[in-house]
Amino acid sequence: MFALKSFLILGAFPAGVLSLWPIPKSMDAGSTFLKLSSQFNISISLQSPPSDLLAAVETTMYYLKNDKLERLVVGRGAYDVQDVQDAKALSSLKLSLEEGAQVNSISTEAVKNIGTRSEEYQLHIPADGTAATLTANSTLGLFRGLTTFSQFWYQYDDQIYMISAPTIIQDTPAYPFRGFMLDTARNYFPPTDIIHTLDAMSWVKLNVFHWHVTDSQSFPLELAEFPELAQKGAYSSAAVYTPANVQNITTHAAAIGIDVMLEIDTPGHTTSISASHPEYMVCNQASPWSTYANEPPAGQLRFTDPAVVNFTTALFSAVAKTLPGSLVSTGGDELNINCYDDDAQTQAELKSSGLTLEESLSKFTQSTHGALIAEGKTPVVWEEMVLDHNVTLANDTIVMVWISSNDAASVAAKNYRIVQAPSDYFYLDCGAGEWIGDTPEATSWCDPFKTWQKAYTFDPLANLTDSQASLVLGGEQLLWTEQSSPNNLDSIVWPRAAASAEVFWTGATGPSGSPLNVTEALPRLHDIRFRMEQRGVKAIVLQPLWCALRPNACDLYA
Amino acid sequence: MVSFTSLLVLVVAVFPVRVQCLWPQPTSITSGTTALNLSPRFYIQPDVYPPPADLLAAITQTELYLRTDSMQRLVLGRGAYDMSAVQSAKTLSSLVLSLEPGATVESISTEAVKALGTRSEGYTLTVPADGSTATLKANSTLGLYRGLTTFSQMWYEYNGQIYTVSAPYDIVDSPAYPFRGFMLDTARNYFPVSDIYRTLDAMSWVKINTFHWHITDSQSFPLIVSQYPELAQYGAYSSADVYTPTDIQNIVSYAAARGIDVLLEIDTPGHTASIADSHPEYVACNQATPWSTFANEPPAGQLRFTDPAVRNFTASLLSSIAKTLPSTVFSTGGDELNINCYTYDNQTQAELNSTGLTLEESLSVFTQATHGALIAEGKTPVVWEEMVLDHNVTLSNDTIVMVWISSADAALVADKGFRFVQAPSDYFYLDCGGGGWVGDYPAGNSWCDPFKTWQRAYTYDPLANLTTTQIPLVLGGEQLLWTEQSSPTNLDPIVWPRAAASAEVFWTATTLGGGALNVTEALPRLHDIRYRMVQRGVNAIVLQPLWCALRPDACDLNA
């Protein structure tokens, strides 16, 4: 009769479950208090546990002891004291892999091909103080389970406790790609900010860091084979990512279940390359910039030039070699045609080759993608490469939808796999006014501000047929940084970027079977936001604390 | 023959690209294009006897900023191309401060809290290009303080060399308006004292002189009042989320020493549900539902002002707080009074019946009692605009009114003859545009959408729709942060550098040529003060990619 009981409890959706984000796919939670023993330990029943799993256990222990999160209720836990005193104490959590599972490091599992990773886990926390158990098919699954486990616990008067024992969770993500994109070219972010962002991503089970590392404004990526690019294209000699920085970032990411998808945007968004290679550039800083680019400065790679094709191909090859992940993005958005129409050299090259501009673009793209494929990578492009251009791409190319959520269906109609990154739901930078100068009245191009509620109500399968649904790999929220820098990174990203983390982990319906909705989600989002702050991330508040302490009291019709 | 003076005038007319370091722009400035080094032995000497302690502290602070700002110039090369000019430049060894003959020596703190309109903030600053002593003169230590602020913004650093690029400077400066404020709400979410200190520092850097502290509201009552300890004990978010009497004294002293007056607001009779935690008997429609019937936002709850006990309590509360504050201004709030709350309250209706007063008459009795208590303590009452536009309340003539609902309401307040502060939501609300925060409302939007950009605030005309005779009624203005969606985690980025926009509107008012301020001229200077703020530890947001900040005007719309 277990099923009936679990259904009943799920229907009531106990208050204790306010602690989890993303909410597990399937969960059975009680309402018994359980405290964490001061001798609590996490044991791993593996013969030779990978070092990143040991590190994850250590980090989990650290969070349990240092989160010091008081419950978001009136009294902040004062009314729990008696229940906690009477509660059983949990002394251990035992981690194990399913029989026959291969023991790999988290880092190895995290960068496997998309769709082949195993992130599911089972977590059982009994109410009677007997050992809790976490099992999975991979160390990556164990890592996800540890993340869930660490979110149960509150602290009051030095007592660490949870309020929803017993809990049984069977959890697995709805989509394999759950990302966050950061642009480090409009303004620079030191590696410490990236590491700190990766940590926050891991807390909500995001698994892809889409790193838009270069753009027209700056080229911070130091490459051993092409040192001149960052030397002349970075904002300063300090505002760079050295090869060691990149290794540290990809290593840190992988150890916490995150794949790094690097993007070198080409052939547009490349003015910064002209600082070292003006000969590769068309309409370099041409004015008026608005004729030649969507934002200043203008400048694009002259892809009709065989030397540029060779350079860009070698560049991708060199970058790809250094990365453990299987995904590399060549960008491909916002190509400006005026730039080529007005360039004598481009026109001469087209004439002599007998190719159209589109044919030449296809040749360029096949060359850069060929280099990636030769390094075992899957190319990723922005939607224009399949919707606006006539470019031959490998069938397994992944396409990122950004201009509008309406475009997903158009990409699906071309049968490419899709990552949902639509500006009308997921752009974190919208709504703060225009940043272009001399425009006192202008607003953000993608106004209004995309609230967490807007992101949360995104339907990844809207307008797609059943057979197209499998093309959707997942999605990501994105921060373009014309108006952002380390000063506001946390506050503009968190907790908003957690919204899509739940959309793509939990899927259309929560454990109770009813569709995700902002009213149910808000108390849990408060919880993870306050926990993030306890862990050092400056996430913004979503409401007055008065509301956060009184779930639903500040709802529209309350 | 071109005289030196006319050459300077010429320079001013074309506004040399290099004077991008000052915010707010002085009302009168001539500058050159000569580089000048700051001597490693540079010192500031106060020829003021006896020098007040806060003036000495301001000098020490200025010398610290000069040495530690480490601000590279926002140009390509960040100063690398300045080095040859710097090498042959003269060196400045000292700045001498003095008061005009006959000026009384008082502390900055004393000058900063004088009645509005009686403070002297003007100064004259001369920095010669030949290395001879720079001079700063004023009629008061407060004026000297403003001049030190200007002086500290002139300097850049590259490779350990501290230098300016636009010597000589001749500045004669004074503010256009006496009230230049910033408001922080510490009741929707709590801000520790250290956040308030840092905010006061940043305010002082752009010559803002009033900290409007909206300290309590319906959500929480963080103010510990010695005579009424129960208010914070039960009404604060926690025993840690409070401002003790010592905190208040520290903040007020810290502010005054930086030329900032603290305008404390205890919002009444609305916005007081948090008082119900200790005094439920004083509050009508306490946490009544649906909240939208009884309040503009949750929770509902307003002081039952028809009750003589509530009137006495409130007057006594305001009196006991006002006593502890040096400022001459104090706000009793008065916004968003919900009438349903009283219509449905039996006790209110019974009291109105027995006194024979209308609700408005009773509100007037209440307000006269609370304002009377403040006036008895030597304070000038400040109210939100509804108190004069929507209610029929007798106020003393010198009451100051804050316009907030719409910039269009300024003319209506002026028609009633009251002095006012420009705080219009359609220009100056820093919290707008972040989406709705009320729950269960996925499509909810910010009530005052869109986001108020710095450009929007900067193009505000404080005198729009006013007659010439009404102009003196405008005391100035302020940008405001209501904190339903803000907390210490985003305080700096949501406030700075945007709140610097009104600082210049109300200090400088017009361009040097007398024309309207314009965003295109302002942007490079705003970048400059923003980067300087970051150097001084304030997490101000960037306004553009650094690429643009290093190339003035290259990212303009038609560039």
Automatic annotation (TrEMBL), chain A:
Domain Glycoside hydrolase family 20 catalytic: residue ranges: 175-507
Active site per the UniProt annotation: 334 (proton donor)
Top-level EC class: hydrolase
Keywords on record: Glycoprotein, Glycosidase, Hydrolase, Signal
A single MF term (Gene Ontology): beta-N-acetylhexosaminidase activity
Gene Ontology cellular component terms for the protein in this record: membrane
Gene Ontology biological process terms, A to Z: carbohydrate metabolic process; glycosaminoglycan metabolic process
InterPro entries associated with the record: Beta_hexosaminidase_sua/sub (IPR025705), GH (IPR017853), Glyco_hydro_20_cat (IPR015883), Hex-like_dom2 (IPR029018), HEX_eukaryotic_N (IPR029019)
Catalytic reaction list: Hydrolysis of terminal non-reducing N-acetyl-D-hexosamine residues in N-acetyl-beta-D-hexosaminides
CDD domains on file: GH20_HexA_HexB-like (cd06562)
SUPFAM superfamilies registered for this protein in UniProt: (Trans)glycosidases, beta-N-acetylhexosaminidase-like domain
Similarity comment: Belongs to the glycosyl hydrolase 20 family.
PANTHER family associated with the record: BETA-HEXOSAMINIDASE, BETA-N-ACETYLHEXOSAMINIDASE
Name of the protein: Beta-hexosaminidase
Automatic annotation (TrEMBL), chain B:
Active site: 336 (proton donor)
One Pfam family named in its UniProt record: Glyco_hydro_20
Official protein name in the record: Beta-hexosaminidase
A GO MF term: beta-N-acetylhexosaminidase activity
EC number(s) given by UniProt: 3.2.1.52
Domain Glycoside hydrolase family 20 catalytic, residue spans: 177-509
An example Gene Ontology biological process: glycosaminoglycan metabolic process
Annotated catalysed reactions: Hydrolysis of terminal non-reducing N-acetyl-D-hexosamine residues in N-acetyl-beta-D-hexosaminides
Keywords: Glycoprotein, Glycosidase, Hydrolase, Signal
Keyword rRNA-binding: no
Gene3D superfamilies for the chain: Chitobiase/beta-hexosaminidase domain 2-like, Glycosidases
CDD domains membership: GH20_HexA_HexB-like
InterPro entries attached to this UniProt entry: Beta_hexosaminidase_sua/sub (IPR025705), GH (IPR017853), Glyco_hydro_20_cat (IPR015883), Hex-like_dom2 (IPR029018), HEX_eukaryotic_N (IPR029019)
Beta-hexosaminidase eukaryotic type N-terminal domain segment(s): 22-154
Taxonomy, superkingdom: Eukaryota
Gene Ontology cellular-component terms listed: membrane
Similarity-based family: Belongs to the glycosyl hydrolase 20 family.
Residues annotated as signal peptide: 1-21
